[in-house]
Known about the structure:
This protein is mainly α and about 350 residues long.
Amino acid sequence: MPAYIARRLLLMIPTLFGILLLNFVIVQFAPGGPVQQVIAQVRGTSELATSQFAGSAGDTRGGGAERSEYRGAQGLPPEFIEELERQFGFHRPAHERFFKMVVDYAQLDFGESFYRDRRVLDLIADKLPVSISLGLWTTLFTYLISIPLGIRKAVHDGSRFDVWTSAVVIVGYAVPAFLFAILLIVLFAGGTYLDWFPLRGLTSDNWEQLDWPARILDYFWHITLPVLAMVIGGFASLTMLTKNAFLEEIHKQYVLTARAKGVSERRVLYGHVFRNAMLVVIAGFPAAFVSILFTGAMLIEVIFSLDGLGLLGFESVVNRDYPVVFGTLFIFTLLGLVLNLIGDLTYVAVDPRIDFETREG
């Protein structure tokens, strides 16, 4: 196992390199980079000031202006364009910028944000606790609800309980988490009915003045609705995955043999079936956690004003803040790779018969 872990850790290096390279190439062809955005803002301000007198004559598409590789840059001094390129680091060729980024990332130096005047690593460190909180609590409660529910649905397959809970699961499939979030706000956060929960942040403004028991209660008071919305929107898939995995194992020969020997139903279910059926559920844990942490939580962060990593990455893409874009991408990818490795190790913990050292390829 140590050799397998070492190989997986070494394989993370070319994987990270390849993902960064692919996204760097894509970004080179994406329109509306930071230089273009600054030019558009400058041109927009200039046109706004002269539009009363020049009308449409000041449009940047007019003929006779000097040519530039940046659309809308006509009429701006070349020195200004060169200074913008130097400020954003685009005065170097693309390959030099990429390899400089790789060297810096190897030293965990992600540079500074174009617009926030802060180091990217500091920004990520500030936002990460919010996303980690949402991801961990949502994953924990999703598994605590979905696994027992899926097991019971499998054991009572076709019963009234299975039918009624399937209706709830269908609702969970059909309605996204952010719609549940809006419903919870209307019902419990002062929208129309009750005003029991806050709508902003993970803590109150006076959190620093509270004692530790009060801080813990305040934290859970703030995070209840966001986590509940994400759990309601995400438990359906895991519930059905657990049910189907158990149904497949329950009808296998070793289960029939154990029952024929007089083994109790509880021991058959949790001593034999559980270990084999849970392998499929564990296999999906890393992807589920990453999805909850960085994708599913983004709209929830917006709705509940939670300043997390998902929201930071989205805003950075919209604003073309490339250092933050690549920094968050690097962190996302690294966490995903580490979680995949943890998933493999969990396989071994659940079923010691699995030995990754003997796998071929």
